[in-house]
């Protein structure tokens, strides 16, 4: 996720950037973030960001006006987190469907909670539609243990059973991007949260399935696995 942070106060901007750095270290996750001191700087780059942390009151264009510009530019679902020294203006932020509203000085716990909700809040509710042989199954992504390629199709193995799917493993890898999966082998896509144990040649999942891991992908797999812990 790429986050834009905008605050005209240098100390406040540096504090938010520092908070994001701490968040990445403590949560063992990767975020891209760039700081801006005014909205005129940020305006041409709206489409480059997935989320925004915005100071509400700034000289020139204010945070509310900029947030409405984000919405009008097609970013209707992008999370917007407002920060301000004036909590009484929280109701104005509803007009642009703000994701969170933080009062300055922003506390670490409040920032971390907002980022957690932004990144992981709906992970348990995400679903995948699986169509095969005239039927459609809706499964929770969090219940998937792994995906195994079978020719040009796949078998999706979940906690409640296996489902055949007329999609390639590469297509499913794209659809599951950002959901904690890793392509351990050309034939296997594994959910990193469903791993019981592993070594340099195989991964054992909680459903009892053992899958191969490619030698050339082992180092990258270990790094991703550690990031998820």
Short summary:
By secondary structure, the chain is of the alpha/beta class. The chain is 29% helix and 32% strand. The protein is elongated and about 60 Å long.
Care to describe what's here?
There is one protein chain. The protein has a five-stranded parallel sheet. Strands 10-9-8-12-11 form a five-stranded antiparallel sheet. A hairpin with a 2-residue loop joins β11 (181-185) and β12 (188-191). Helices cover 29% and strands 32% of the residues. It folds into two domains: 2-120, Response regulator (Rossmann fold, 3-Layer(aba) Sandwich), CATH 3.40.50.2300; 124-228, OB fold (Dihydrolipoamide Acetyltransferase, E2P), CATH 2.40.50.1020. It is of the alpha/beta class and 229 residues long. It has helices at residues 10-27, 39-42, 63-72, 90-93, 108-120, 169-175, 218-228, and strands at residues 2-6, 32-36, 51-55, 80-84, 100-103, 127-132, 135-140, 144-150, 153-158, 161-165, 181-185, 188-191, 195-198, 202-205, 210-212.
Q: Calculate the mean pLDDT score and round it.
A: 89
Total count of helical runs of at least 4 residues: 7
Tally of extended strands? 15
Rounded to the nearest angstrom, the distance between the terminal CA atoms is 19 Å
Largest sheet: 5 strands, parallel
Task: Give a topology summary.
Layout: E1 2-6, H1 10-27, E2 32-36, H2 39-42, E3 51-55, H3 63-72, E4 80-84, H4 90-93, E5 100-103, H5 108-120, E6 127-132, E7 135-140, E8 144-150, E9 153-158, E10 161-165, H6 169-175, E11 181-185, E12 188-191, E13 195-198, E14 202-205, E15 210-212, H7 218-228
């Amino acid at each position: 996720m790429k986050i834009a942070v905008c605050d005209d106060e240098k100390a406040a901007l540096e504090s938010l950037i520092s908070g994001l750095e701490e968040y990445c270290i403590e949560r063992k996750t990767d975020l891209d973030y760039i700081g801006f001191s005014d909205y005129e700087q940020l305006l041409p780059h709206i489409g480059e960001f997935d989320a925004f942390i915005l100071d509400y009151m700034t000289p020139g264009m204010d945070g509310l006006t900029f947030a409405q510009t984000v919405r009008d530019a097609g970013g209707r679902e992008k999370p917007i987190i407002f920060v301000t020294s004036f909590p009484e203006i929280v109701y104005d932020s509803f007009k642009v469907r703000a994701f969170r509203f933080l009062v300055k000085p922003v506390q670490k716990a409040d920032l971390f909670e907002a980022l957690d909700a932004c990144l992981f809040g709906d992970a348990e509710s995400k679903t995948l539609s699986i169509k095969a042989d005239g039927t459609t199954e809706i499964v929770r992504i969090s219940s998937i243990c792994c995906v195994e390629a079978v020719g040009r199709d796949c078998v999706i193995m979940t906690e409640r059973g296996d489902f055949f799917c007329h999609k390639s493993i590469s297509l499913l890898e794209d659809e599951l991007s950002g959901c904690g999966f890793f392509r351990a082998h050309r034939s296997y896509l594994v959910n990193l949260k469903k791993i019981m144990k592993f070594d340099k040649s195989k991964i054992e999942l909680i459903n009892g399935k053992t899958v191969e891991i490619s030698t050339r992908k082992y180092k990258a797999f270990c790094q991703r696995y550690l990031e998820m812990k």
